[in-house]
Amino acid sequence: MGNRNRNTAIVLIAAGVFLLLGSMIGFSTVAGILIVWLAVHKLRTGEQKSGYLLLVLGLLFLVNGNLSVLMFILLFSLGYFILKSKQVHRGENYLQKHNLLESIRWNTEPWELKNLSVWSVIGEIRMDLSLAVTNEPETTIVLQGIIGDIDLIVPEDIGVSVESMIWIGQTSVNQDRESGLCNKLQWKSPNYDTSEQRVNLLISCVIGDLDMKVL
Questions:
Q1: Where are the chain's structural domains?
Q2: I need a surface site. Which of 66, 111, 150, 157 has the fewest CB within 10 A?
Q3: What proportions of the chain, in percent to the nearest 5, are helix, strand and coil?
Q4: What is the pLDDT of residues 66-116, one digit of tens each?
Q5: Rounded to whole angstroms, how far apart are CA atoms 117 and 16?
Q6: What's the predicted TM-score (pTM) here?
């Protein structure tokens, strides 16, 4: 009986929050955000077909009656990304990429680690730093976008600093997981200050899922 009452209370609270947000920003917008969030979760668990179907459905809900708002978010995000990249890299040579869809899978074979900035509307990032090859003592990578699914593997022999902001979604470091709104993470490996090779990661997504495994 206790669990049943608890579940009923949770459903009632969730329904109330949905109605409140719906009256403030529109029911289609709230539904779209929830569906996109569920789609990201489906994609992370390997349910690719249902995940992409939900993603398309969620985007359709968001576009419905919110085109000007979405355009503002896209243009603001891209403009902020360009300014942030120039500020972070400080005139150093770096590769800048901005695409509607971006898929980076650097987790199966050695790859070249270099200063990089990536922006996308929908991005899927798989990055294993234990396979990274570089001659630079310090490297900075900026990852920004609207919807992002990011997996990081951090080895113990590289000094790594991670700063991330996920506005809607979840962030996990090994077994520690946080979900909800405005998930901010600031993390440094214990050997960062003494390591001869350092990697700085700056991550920002409106809707996203960041999963970091520290070896």
A1: 2-65, 69-214
A2: 157
A3: 40, 40, 20
A4: 666 667 777 777 777 777 777 778 767 888 888 878 888 988 899 988 888
A5: 40
A6: 0.68
